Structures are given as structure tokens and as C-alpha cells.
Amino acid sequence: MTVSKSVLLETLPPDLDCNRLPQHVAVIMDGNGRWAKRQGLPRFMGHRRGVDALKDLLRCCKDWGIPALTAYAFSTENWGRPSEEVEFLMMLFERVLRRELKEMMAENVKIRFVGNLAGLPRSLQEEIARSMEDTKENRGIQFTVATNYGGRQEILQACRAIADRVRQGELQVDAIDETVFEDHLYTAGLTPPDLLIRTSGEMRISNFLLWQMAYAEIYVTQTAWPDFDRKAFHQALANYQQRDRRFGKV
């Protein structure tokens, strides 16, 4: 995705340096249920409001020249939630995809889903496949949605796939390096996140992008996900730009 510098300078808050923005932001969207409870609303209303917050963040990344956004939408552990909530989330994902596809095309968004997609309901799998197929040639922001995703599972399946290639004689053991390993991850082809944002104050990464997060800067905010807006994102980026990223060096 390319945004002209003149357009970027018109939209980017003046205290942010356009040359030091993260190129890939990942978000753990936590706090929907607690937000709803504080509002005296059922949990599903928190999830609905969370969709709006994600749309706003996607637009903000586009406006501010951040080329990649990855959202943790549903983990492999989330199947342990009450069945009514899981069913609602599956239905919500499907409806949102169907409803928003036209706008994503208009905004040149390239959407990609990562995770154990075969474990999702068939109708949702079909919507996911259609959205990825329809947007695959788009050259705007890369929007990745981690769904039925677990970082440990991702690493295990990569190891199994590599072992199978070695067993079949397609790959030599000495040829296995970080690049080969990354090519077998769900996220193959994506750059690692520069910044991980977690909302609602929890101080953990919850099995998300375990390999890819090796050198990501982590920012935790007390703001619940449904309330995470441009101001909150601005604060996260300002904090990020104060960091000295050394990647293990002095």
C-alpha cells in the first residue's frame, strides 16, 4: 500500500513521525464482554461494537499509511466459551464478511484469514474463501484475520509439514532455516508485526503469533476493545515511537 506523503501529512497527527510508523500492527481485541457488562448489555452487544472498532482501526491504518493490520478474532481456546456465544460469533463473522466485502473492494483492502480454517462452520469457510479470492489482487492495506488460530498449533503444523517434506525427500535437513520454517506458517509471506496492541489491560499474548512476535514492541492499554478509537491508537503509536528498537543488539 502506498499513501502519498502530502495526503499522509494531512491526516497523520502532527506529533507522529511518518518515517517511524510501524509497518505492521497486530491487535488482541480484548474486553468486549466486560465492556458490555459495564454497559448493562448482553455480551453479544460487546462483540458487535467490537466489529465497529475494528473497522475504525482498519480505516485509520489506511489513512495514516500503515500497510498491514492483523487482528486476533477467534482463538483455538475460544471454543471453550458458552455455545450460544460461539454460535453468535460464527454468525457475526459470516454476516460481517458478506456485508463488508463490497466496501473492502472499494477501499482496495486485501483480506487474508489465518488459522485452522477447516475447523470452522462450512458456510463461514465459504465466505472466507470468497472474500480472499475477490480481494487477492487488491494492493491496499493487508488485513489479516486470525480465526480459529493458536500460535502453538501453528508451530506444530509447520513442523509436521517440514518433517513430511523431509520424509518424502523434497527437503534436506541442512536446508531448514528460519525462512523455510516461516514459509510453512499460516502467516507465510507476511512481515512480522512491529507493534502488538492488547486492549483491556491483560498482560499476556494469549498464544498469538508466538514465532512472529519475537521482536515486536508490546503496548497494553486499559481501554476495552469497543472503546479503542483513533485517540487510543494515536497514543499507542506515540508510545511506540518513543521506543528504541535494538533487535537484541546494543
From TrEMBL:
GO molecular function, one term: ditrans,polycis-polyprenyl diphosphate synthase [(2E,6E)-farnesyl diphosphate specific] activity
The organism's place on the tree of life at top rank: Bacteria
EC number: 2.5.1.-
Signal sequence segment: none
Active site: D30, N78
Transmembrane region(s): none
Matching PROSITE patterns: UPP_SYNTHASE (PS01066)
SUPFAM superfamilies found in the cross-reference section: Undecaprenyl diphosphate synthase (SSF64005)
UniProt keyword terms in alphabetical order: Magnesium, Metal-binding, Transferase
Amino-acid positions noted as binding Mg(2+) in the UniProt annotation, renumbered to this chain: D30, E217
InterPro entries in the cross-refs: UPP_synth-like (IPR001441), UPP_synth-like_CS (IPR018520), UPP_synth-like_sf (IPR036424)
Entry keyword annotation includes Magnesium: yes
Keyword Transferase found: yes
Record: residues binding substrate: 31-35, 43, 47, 75-77, 79, 81, 198, 204-206
Protein's job: Catalyzes the condensation of isopentenyl diphosphate (IPP) with allylic pyrophosphates generating different type of terpenoids.
Family: Belongs to the UPP synthase family.
Oligomeric and partner information: Homodimer.
Name the record gives this protein: Isoprenyl transferase
Organism phylogeny: Bacteria, Bacillati, Cyanobacteriota, Cyanophyceae, Spirulinales
Chain's gene name: uppS
